[in-house]
Design brief:
Growth Hormone, Chain: A, mainly alpha, 408 residues, 0% strand
Length: 408
């Protein structure tokens, strides 16, 4: 029996998405304690931005190599290793007593996290048919949004009760244990069931695959799309979103986390809504274009609202940005429909590099801008920093226009 005909594929789906949920919950978790870290470790905004940037730099820099390795040697091993590294990095983070260990532990987390999404996509490509993929990406988007959601109010409430170290230690330990679960589900049990591998085309050389990726307009289109919509969203939520709520609206940590939850609720709805709309349209590009434009205009309105905007306006615009972020799942639907099975890993990695390159740059550039202003003008500094996500989202619009409709 082939993998795509086996009922066991649903167990694979549930377990891999559970692990993805846990890892996503740790991806942006440090953003909740940005102010606490600056006080406890007596570091500047630039150092905090550097910590986030190191994590996402590791992620972005490893996407193409991991994609190549996944296509060559199979995604199961790398998903397991990535899960283990993410858990160990989170545990190390919980014991950090200086800024070096903070940065190094997040580098470990970023290295492990780099192995997750690309291999998740490759595994789902093996177990599910192409026609099921758009709907499946809606579920992946939902799980990602729920993971990010837990890193807002639920995490901040836990931190207020127990301090910030305990949650990172416990969640890190659970992630390490989940790596063992992955081994039994993806390797041990699959071998026992003797499920056939799906037929694969003859592989080209690494040089040929990389050359094709870098010279294909469609691959660059997905790179820019993900840069503009996903990385901008993750970079803001994971670093300066909570401080924005605290300093612009004088909110408590919990209330600022709730403000970020608005965007995440939008993303939860957006993942399913956009998947549903796309399945009923004959054009992925039209859906892509509409929601990218919606996100760009939302960032523009936030910027134009000034240093003390009405909070109800910001709530609405954050919701729209989260809603539009659901379209990021279509990036990999485009990849799956455009490229062969043997190229999905590396092209997915290339597209994902775009998303996390912007997630690397955004916290760092935010920190640089903020350090130009006195500490008592933080709300003004945060306002001026909003030009960064606005510019990045415009890059995403350019990517949408580059997509060749006839190829998908």
């Amino acid at each position: 029996m082939g993998k795509q005909d086996s009922r066991y594929r649903w167990i694979v789906l549930v377990v891999t998405l559970l692990v993805y949920f846990l890892i996503i919950s740790q991806r942006t978790a440090p953003g909740v304690i940005t102010d606490q870290l600056m006080i406890e470790f007596q570091v500047s905004a630039t150092i905090i931005g550097l910590m986030s940037s190191f994590q996402f730099f590791a992620y972005a820099g490893l996407q193409i190599p991991i994609g190549l390795l996944s296509d060559r040697y199979g995604p199961n091993l790398f998903l397991i290793i990535g899960t283990l590294l993410t858990g160990l990095g989170s545990i190390m983070y919980s014991f950090a007593d200086n800024s070096f260990l903070l940065i190094f532990s997040r580098l470990i987390v970023g290295t492990g996290d780099a192995m997750i999404f690309v291999n998740l996509i490759s595994i789902l490509s093996q177990w599910f048919r192409t026609k099921e993929f758009v709907k499946l990406m809606g579920f992946v988007s939902l799980v990602a949004s729920l993971g990010l959601l837990t890193a807002t109010l639920p995490l901040s409430t836990w931190i207020e009760f127990s301090g910030w170290r305990t949650p990172f230690l416990i969640i890190g330990t659970i992630i390490v244990l989940s790596a063992i679960l992955l081994y039994f589900v993806l390797v041990k049990k699959t071998q026992q069931l003797l499920l056939d591998e799906i037929h694969k085309e003859k592989r080209g050389s690494v040089k040929d695959v990389v050359k094709k990726t870098f010279s294909t307009r469609q691959a660059w289109a997905t790179f820019f799309c993900h840069f503009g919509i996903f990385g901008t969203y993750i970079g803001f939520i994971g670093s300066w979103g909570v401080p924005y709520g605290i300093h612009v609206f004088d909110l408590s940590l919990s209330n600022a986390s709730q403000l970020m939850m608005v965007g995440l609720f939008g993303a939860i709805i957006g993942g399913f809504l956009i998947s549903w709309i796309t399945r009923r349209q004959d054009s992925i590009k039209k859906v892509y274009r509409f929601f990218h434009l919606l996100v760009f205009l939302s960032w523009l309105m936030i910027f134009l609202s000034g240093t003390k905007p009405p909070i109800i306006v910001i709530i609405f615009l954050f919701f729209l940005i989260g809603l539009g972020n659901g379209v990021s799942a279509l990036t990999f639907a485009v990849v799956r429909k455009t490229f062969s099975q043997n190229e999905v890993g590396v092209v997915s990695g290339f597209a994902n590099t775009g998303g996390f390159l912007s997630a690397v740059l955004l916290p760092m550039l935010f920190g640089k801008v903020i350090d130009f202003f006195p500490t008592d003008e933080m709300h003004i500094a945060l306002h001026h920093s909003l030009i960064i996500p606005l510019t990045f989202s415009f890059v995403g619009l350019v990517g949408v226009l580059m997509i060749r409709e006839e190829t998908i």
